[in-house]
Structure formats: C-alpha cells, structure tokens
Amino acid sequence: SAVISQKPSRDICQRGTSLTIQCQVDSQVTMMFWYRQQPGQSLTLIATANQGSEATYESGFVIDKFPISRPNLTFSTLTVSNMSPEDSSIYLCSAYKSVGSYGYTFGSGTRLTVV
Amino acid sequence: AQTVTQSQPEMSVQEAETVTLSCTYDTSESDYYLFWYKQPPSRQMILVIRQEAYKQQNATENRFSVNFQKAAKSFSLKISDSQLGDAAMYFCAYRRGAGGTSYGKLTFGQGTILTVHP
C-alpha cells in the first residue's frame, strides 16, 4: 500500500496567521482527502483534494478558510488560514488507490495548537 | 446521508481474553464497504479489517474477525486473544460502492477506546 509523509507533525501558531500542511505520497493515488480530528474524537472530512481542479468541500468547511491544492497525483497541501484557537486540532490527510486495493493510507497527522 | 454509530465509548479486556466492539450503520445503498481502523496514541490510522457488503462470508484477519449482519446493518469486531498492543482507539468506517459524488469518502463512527489489562 502507499506510504504518506505528512509535514509538519506538530506546530504552535499565533492567531491570525496561516499554516500549510503537506502530504507526499510515494506512489500515484486516485483520491486524496483531508480530515480534522479533535483529540479523542472521530475524524471529520474537510474536503476531497482533486488533482488539477478545485477541492470539493464538506458542509461547514469553506475554501477561504481551508484552501487545498493538489497539483499532481502524489502531493497535496491544506492551508489553515487566519487561525483562531478553535482551529486547534489534529489534521490528517488520506490517500485512496482504487486499483488493486480497497484500502486507504493515512498520514501521521499534524497536531496544531493556536495561541 | 450515511451514518455510522459506535455505542461503546470505552471497552476494556483482560490480556488473552476476547472482546467485541459494536458498530451499526445506516444506508440506503446496496453496494458498500465497511472497515475497522485502529488508532494508537501515535495517531497513525491502521486498517484492521474490511468487509465488502456483497460478500456473505465474514472477514477474518488472524485474531480479528467481524460479524457482518447486513439486514440488521451491524458490523461488530471481535478481537481474540487480546494483547497489550491492541490497546487503541478503534473506528468503524463506511464507504459507498463505486460511482456517485461521494465515491471514496469514508464516514467514521465516534470511536471506541479499548484498554487491555495485563
């Protein structure tokens, strides 16, 4: 299965600033997703990162706050913009390769603290 | 919209014993996939087992097996001979079959924290 490198693993940021999280997959994948997870809670899908086009956002998440890029089939970024303490959370990316596997690979997550 | 419910926020088991984690889901689809993921404190999501809805046979992976009851929309995970390394948060997840705008998306349950006592 694919392996994802997610960076940074953690960061502490000032409110009002932005942070970009990167995910690099070691092989081409069909789909990439971004999730948010409060510690000890479930994963909530933010958006599907579409290669070469705008991401598809879930209800409650908007592009201005969480711009996403996916320039090719192995790389995606999520930016958390104009951060507030409420954005403190764990952010995970996930990749899905439809050919040959029904499984998903997840990055190790980015623990973000906004102060 | 599909929903996944895990009604047990926490479970505990003695080492070498068996434990069952519950999961129910709601869907109008006939083609879908179900998964159990394990998330240890490292945050890494690890696939434990998956089940295709069209398969009547319950999936098994070594000490892990599922009881898939399609009509009841139930998908429980049984862990046999529990080990200390099994301690983690366990998530049940649903994915619809091919096609449609929500293709590929995983819907997760709330999670169950499993503690293994030595």
Summarize the structure.
The complex is a heterodimer of chains A (115) and B (118). Chain A is mostly beta strands and 115 residues long.
Label the overall shape of chain B. globular
How many extended strands of chain B? 12
Q: Considering DSSP H and I runs of 4 or more, what fraction of the residues of chain B is helical?
A: under 10%
List low-confidence stretches of chain B.
none
Provide a count of the helices of chain B.
0
The separation of the N and C termini of chain B measures 41 Å
Mean pLDDT of chain A: 93
Largest interface: A-B, 22 and 21 residues
Output the number of helix runs of chain A: 0
- Span between termini of chain A: 37 Å
Report the major sheet of chain B.
Answer: 6 strands, mixed
Radius of gyration of chain B: 14 Å
Oligomer: heterodimer
| Helix content bin of chain A | under 10%
The share of residues in extended strands of chain B comes to over 45%
The string of secondary-structure elements of chain A, in order, is EEEEEEEEEEE
The whole-number mean of residue pLDDT values of chain B reads 93
Structural class of chain A: mainly beta
Structural class label of chain B? mainly beta
What is the CA-based Rg of chain A, rounded?
13 Å
Overall 3D form of chain A: globular
Descriptors:
heterodimer; A: 115 residues; four-stranded antiparallel beta sheet; B: 118 residues; mainly beta; six-stranded mixed beta sheet; globular
Describe the structure.
The complex is a heterodimer of chains A (115) and B (118). Chain A is mainly β and 115 residues long. Chain A has strands at residues 4-7, 10-13, 19-25, 31-37, 43-49, 56-57, 68-72, 75-80, 89-96, 104-106, 110-114. Helix content of chain A is 0%, strand content 50%. In chain A, strands 2, 4, 5, 6, 9, 10 and 11 form a seven-stranded mixed beta sheet that branches. A four-stranded antiparallel beta sheet of chain A has the order 1-3-8-7, with no helix packed on it. Chain A is globular. Chain B is an all-beta fold and 118 residues long. Chain B is 0% helix and 51% strand. Chain B has strands at 3-5, 10-14, 19-21, 24-26, 32-39, 46-52, 60-61, 64-69, 74-79, 88-96, 107-108, 112-117. In chain B, strands 2, 5, 6, 10, 11 and 12 form a six-stranded mixed beta sheet that branches. In chain B, strands 3-9-8-7 form a four-stranded antiparallel beta sheet, with no helix packed on it. In chain B, strands 1-4 form a two-stranded antiparallel sheet. In chain B, strand 8 and strand 9 form a beta hairpin. The model of chain B has no long low-confidence stretch (mean pLDDT 93). Chains A and B meet through strand 5 and strand 9 of A and strand 6 and strand 11 of B.
